Amino acid sequence: MRYLAALLLATANAADVCSNTQAIDGQQFPDWIKSGGSTRQLTGGGTRYKYGVAKVYALGLYIDEGVATGALSKFAGKEGKQLAADQKFHDAVIQGKFGKTLLLQFHRAVGGEKVAEALKDSLSDKLDAKTLEAFKDKLFGVISNGVNKGTKLYFECSGGDVGISVDSLKAQAKAPATVCDALLKTYYGKAPVSAQAKEGMAHGFAALAAAA
């Protein structure tokens, strides 16, 4: 009975993540995940570098299934190069009323305090001091033991508080809803912390829309 229960649990968990993957700078990202009560499809992404040379993590953005032919349909049919240069597209992704999940997969081991502080600094011009501290505290509570190479860090945006989790799609902490907008602007705004991740998302969306 214990074996059967474990098997059923493993099967249920496996069903939350697609077995097919796409590589983003050497890290494997599932084609889709089940998050926020919906299936979300991978667009694309890239790597966040420190000082422009040291790889920290690869980043991928997931959006609710059907968005490419729904809320963002007016951008379908455009090439990735066009979308990458079109801030209106990125603003539509940031502001769109659909579910989004950011997945960070680390290229190397980093201390939890360093990760929390670095992400807090990235959001410092987009959130008030109180919200920033709340976000850092919630994030550190999840990664207090640090991250290793391959660790997955999820930020789930579903219209309410932002779910934060490590190596699981079950939220282990909640951050204020305004954090979602700040995170998306950090990666897809006019001055992204990773131009590669922003461009990769646009190219990935173009491919996703073409296949829809």
Automatic annotation (TrEMBL):
Residues 24-207 form the Chalcone isomerase domain. It comes from the Eukaryota. SUPFAM superfamilies: Chalcone isomerase (SSF54626). GO terms for molecular function: intramolecular lyase activity. Keywords: Signal. Residues 1-19 form the signal peptide. The keyword Signal applies. The keyword Signal applies. This is Chalcone isomerase domain-containing protein. It comes from Pelagomonas calceolata.
